[in-house]
Amino acid sequence: MGANASNYPHSCSPRVGGNSQAQQTFIGTSSYSHQGYGCESKLYSLDHGHEKPQDKKKKTSGLATLKKKFIKRRKSSRSADHAKQMRELLSGWDVRDVNALVEEYEGTSALKELYLQANLARPEARTLQKDMAELYQYKYCTDVDLIFQETCFPVHRAILAARCPFFKTLLSSSPEYGAEIIMDINTAGIDMPMFSALLHYLYTGEFGMEDSRFQNVDILVQLSEEFGTPNSLDVDMRALFDYMCYYDVVLSFSSNSDLVETFGGSQNCLDEELRAHKAVISSRSPFFRHLLQRRIRTGEEITDRTLRTPTRIILDESIIPKKYAKVILNCMYTDVVDLSVLHSSPSVGSLSEVQALVAGKLNMTRAEEAMELYHIALFLEFNMLAQGCEDIIAESISLDTLIAILKWSSQPYGSKWVHRQALHFLCEEFTQVMASDVFYELSKDHLLTAIQSDYLQASEQDILKYLIKWGEHQLMKRIADREPNLLSGTAHSVNKRGVKRRDLDIEELREILSPLLPFVRIEHILPMNSEVLSDAMKRGLISTPPSDMLPTSEGGKSNAWLRQKNAGIYVRPRLFSPYVEEAKSVLDEMMVEQTDLVRLRMVRMSNVPDTLYMVNNAVPQCCHMITHQQVSTNQSSPPSVIANEIPVPSLLTVKEMIRRLQELRHTEQVQRAYALNCGEGATVSYEIQIRVLREFGLSDAAAELLQ
Fold first, then answer.
1. Which domains does the chain have, with CATH numbers?
2. C-alpha distances in Å from residue 608, one per residue of 134, 604, 605, 612, 674
3. What pLDDT does residue 39 have?
4. Which residues pair with 312 in a beta bridge?
5. 150, CA 20 to 30 Å: which among 43, 71, 205, 691?
6. Using CA atoms, how far apart are residues 91 and 72, in angstroms rounded to an integer?
7. pLDDT digits (tens, 9 = 90+) for 105-147
8. Which helix (H) or strand (E) holds 255?
9. Nearest to 50 by CA among 439, 493, 538
10. Closest Cα partner for 79 from 577, 418, 433?
11. Angle subtended at Cα 287 by Cα 690 and Cα 178, rounded to the nearest 5 degrees
């Protein structure tokens, strides 16, 4: 039996308010703020740090419309330029070479699909239904016993009353805590396992066992007539949240540090109270469950039962701001993260609101609120709320919010999942980012990650051009930081007068760009006579010219674009959409002219037969796995760490991971990726391994577990 109050109101009552005689328990720890979870830790503003010039007043609406047309025409013409450059490159190619390039693009496209799935992978959050099933199984905080066929079933009064009219009437006649109620069921054929299955259904919406009797329409009709037909679990739990029938815990918020330290104080020191059910908060949050179990061990629960009052839990508002309490409770009862609750109730001047006003964060954006709530969800160990906040932040990623979200998500207390979505947005919208001021706010690490991607949506010429501009901007910031304070902000400062390009120190610029320029694929720069590339070589930023500029080169650009004709280390061309579409268009035109070569397009398929590309239970034949040091099988005990960092999961978890890996390997999509990337099977295997690791909540560095 769990810990509960010894008496409950018989009728439903509003959520706010509580008995002033309730016992008090303080919740809070100073380590919360040190970990970056508290209100004091600064959230990055979603407004750009740089000052934007004031928009000039438009003289006429006609001029604005004309300007929009020019911008749209400029974008379409830019895409046409990329297509024209690719067509010029392929103009002298044989149809077999064009076919080989398109096949390379198709292989990269198949890898991108696996990469995106791995990016979206994360551990499955526990739903309300799963937590309610665990609540019924482990009997947290039960408050009434049902006796059926000499068997005791500890249950929760509020859950059964909300789900079943029969139990609502039955339990109202025995309101005392720990009441024992003998069940008398009129429906024939109900035994103990079936009664347990009925209770399981009321908790979860599922019977939880296979029994042919549940397929018997007559028995179901009799049960419905006796017990009533419950609504869906979501509807009944929403009603329980709205009316708080049989609540047994009160959440209070304190802004008085003395009260926090002494567990006492007057009622005037406490802010607004919220009612809840121990059964729900203990099943959804291990934090609350451990707290309530500790109260049982220390005997505090006996006091609550003696006084017949609900348990009061005092929360330190500097740790869990009161304004988020209703959002948290709403998610616990419904699995929905609804931030509109924050703005639906009038302000009462709480400590968190005063702190937000002082910090200039009173009018926080939706993403900023989700970031702050995400930290609280981690503190409460409430994964459904944490993932809901991640979804809200990911949905808010745009050109204006990109920098702030990248900075927040890259911090130790940020979300790795959100960070992957922000980097994906950066790669997909890189052309748009380059043309904006946001580009110059990108950190070197984020820029480096983007230009290493095979899926970056930009041409190599534009990448080189804007990388140099980014480096020049960083160098100017260095110069401005080095100038005397006396000149700062005056007409003679660097920010005011600027710096001419010829005055920039090439050596320092080369030092800034040295980690980035090696990842520009200069062999794939179009057009062949690129002025951007020539200028970079003249300035000494690039020392090695592409192969087509060397006198020993044979075949020109085809050496770099085609795997089978590349003399050195092959680097696959990026999956840049205008290039890909134009290459396919050129190939289709060639196929029309040379219909006898259609057989070359053997890998262009919509469905791959399983018998052709089935992979065995081990690593596929085409997959050249990276070798790792294997752990000896004759060890008496398994190692405690992998690579000195990652704890080894349980053997059961590893078996589940391997089963999931084999399941993914046999999917049509992965088989097709193996078929299109026969020379790079290790890359395909790595993508599905990373996906499995992320689904099980492990670090990417634990990949050797699956190798």
1. 128-230 (3.30.710.10), 651-706 (no CATH)
2. 42, 10, 7, 7, 11
3. 38
4. 24, 250
5. 205
6. 29
7. 999 999 999 999 999 999 999 999 999 999 999 999 999 999 9
8. none
9. 439
10. 577
11. 130
